[in-house]
């Protein structure tokens, strides 16, 4: 499926893979669920701005979860104690 650019008035530009028959159909923004419209960019010229600039799929997922407030899974605990700060009285 091709990758298309869409613009949300609130969140800005995002990319979405869609079937070419659905490319011009309205789409809900993944960040805020407002309506987004397709924007056309010349082939090979993609401008990226904002928190998603240069982010891969995993990073974009982390950004999306951070924006929604979904808890982050950071991995299993290491079992090590955190260093304590020296006490000064």
Your description of this structure?
This protein has 1 helix and 4 strands, in the order ββββα. The chain has one domain (3-68). The protein has a 4-stranded antiparallel sheet with strand order 2-1-4-3, with no helix packed on it. β1 (3-8) and β2 form a beta hairpin. It is elongated. By secondary structure, it is an alpha+beta fold.
Output the keywords.
89 residues; 4 strands
Share in helix: 10-25%
Written as H for each helix and E for each strand, in order along the chain, the element string is EEEEH
The low-pLDDT segments are none
* Amount of beta strand: 15-25%
Alpha plus pi helix count: 1
Q: Give the number of DSSP strands.
A: 4
Which value, in Å, is the CA radius of gyration?
Answer: 19 Å
**Main sheet summary:** 4 strands, antiparallel
Alpha-beta classification? alpha+beta
Shape: elongated
Counted up, domains total: 1
- The termini sit apart by 64 Å
**Spatial arrangement of strands, main beta sheet:** 2-1-4-3
The pLDDT mean sits at 75
Which secondary structure elements does this structure contain, and how are they paired or packed?
Blueprint (H helix, E strand, L loop, with lengths): L2 E6 L3 E6 L9 E2 L6 E5 L17 H12 L21
Antiparallel strand pairs: 1-2, 1-4, 3-4
Give a brief outline of the structure.
With 89 residues, the protein is α+β, with helices and mostly antiparallel strands. It is 13% helix and 21% strand.
